[in-house]
Amino acid sequence: xxxxxxxxxxxxxxxxxxxxxxxxxxxxxxxxxxxxxxxxxxxxxxxxxxxxxxxxxxxxxxxxxxxxxxxxxxxxxxxxxxxxxxxxxxxxxxxxxxxxxxxxxxxxxxxxxxxxxxxxxxxxxxxxxxxxxxxxxxxxxxxxxxxxxxxxxxxxxxxxxxxxxxxxxxxxxxxxxxxxxxxxxxxxxxxxxxxxxxxxxxxxxxxxxxxxxxxxxxxxxxxxxxxxxxxxxxxxxxxxxxxxxxxxxxxxxxxxxxxxxxxxxxxxxxxxxxxxxxxxxxxxxxxxxxxxxxxxxxxxxxxxxxxxxxxxxxxxxxxxxxxxxxxxxxxxxxxxxxxxxxxxxxxxxxxxxxxxxxxxxxxxxxxxxxxxxxxxxxxxxxxxxxxxxxxxxxxxxxxxxxxxxxxxxxxxxxxxxxxxxxxxxxxxxxxxxxxxxxxxxxxxxxxxxxxxxxxxxxxxxxxxxxxxxxxxxxxxxxxxxxxxxxxxxxxxxxxxxxxxxxxxxxxxxxxxxxxxxxxxxxxxxxxxxxxxxxxxxxxxxxxxxxxxxxxxxxxxxxxxxxxxxxxxxxxxxxxxxxxxxxxxxxxxxxxxxxxxxxxxxxxxxxxxxxxxxxxxx
Length: 617
Hints:
Oligomer: single chain
CATH topology of the domain at 460-616: Serine Threonine Protein Phosphatase 5, Tetratricopeptide repeat
Shape: elongated
Helix content: 55-70%
CATH architecture of the domain at 460-616: Alpha Horseshoe
Largest sheet: none
Number of strands: 0
């Protein structure tokens, strides 16, 4: 197979682009300027708090607090820390490892987590330049693409929201893997080490986020496109080129097979559908989804955390046929442009292929069918296309730094506009109150906004106001676990134990896999004087989530009230194993050990006071 020579050099004159070749110094300064701009536009996020899923995945995640949980990152869903029986869709060990490293360094200080997320995006932006310059063979076009990619406002969700870091995290490894693949093509003498590095990086990308599995498709398409093999007929040539491309992709498919096996074992299945919609319904929803993403690539403004989009089960004009028209026109335009230009073809591959996994809409719950963060990687292909278009722009005369002024001015305006949009798009992630307010802007998300407001009131100690909001929501959502659970906890903490018993009992009926429901029901039963029921419920909570803080300590206190000193001692020791700094559990364990030792010697039981009430938890 003929190998393309992919050198990091400016070949603008050879490719028909206007302007003088750029010096290494000019490129380096321009790249530093772009990265600095990206950092400055996201600088305000360093003062943001933990919001939305951050509260659970970081603040409430016991798996981040000790290295002993490291094996579980590779054997369970990313949300399995909440309950051991959970088998979801998200297998992301590297994502959890990234969080663990940040927890070790920064603890629960949000600024450090946000700083790491911004740096991760900067790393992706730098790798985007290296990839673009290899693909476009023009360093000014690559710089244009890097600026557009780094400042594209749809990245706000992935950069300003800590839990959205899965996007830049997997993209770092994916770009690095692809660059090693390109180096393997251009340097046959070092093919083996580059292949090994590429495969390792590909595996890490898959373990960071499942979207990375698309890399073999991208490589296959590129190999097919770049192959110069000919044959007596076009179909025969395509078959030959496909075979050669498949040979290149084979090692990546082997890595994918290994990843797939690990995923199957960890999640007890490859695809755990969250919506029971038919394939036809999903197919009819695709035009609206694709039109949404096309609009947000071309005109990213007024971006918010959630967008109201529902499934469509019938062929109608407004929601199916009308969105299909611009999507079809865009597809036809890209197809014919790709036929005329290999660079356009490669850019199209990078824009279209990464969007394919998110078209499996049944993997998402309703209300989450579309998100701006899903455009993180596809926006690279869009940036390449836009950069190519700008480089062919020839308006006016003269030069600025040896380059066409119209191109530089247009890119500067695009960068400034995108930067201002970033400031607007990131604002909603400042704190939980602001986040909830922005969610309320979304049609169909009003109840979610009220829940967010109630959660904020709760966190600031305004329990009565939070309870009133949950009571307003309950009549329309009586089968909502969250609302029943929060009402039960609210009444528990305000001392209204019969009401707490009613709502918490309903919560465990609705979802018996949620450990917190059993835990707080156990505490409620204890307050009502039913020690045996308290023990049964807290034991159930421990069985569901054995690594959760305070569960073992609370069960130990209850067992001691029942007179089971040996069982109580075991629970206190397990709590100490989870948290070596838990002095309360250590004191209780030492007290019980002394009582057991005295009992073995025939001495009367200790007159030490009873352990503290578990209600403190």
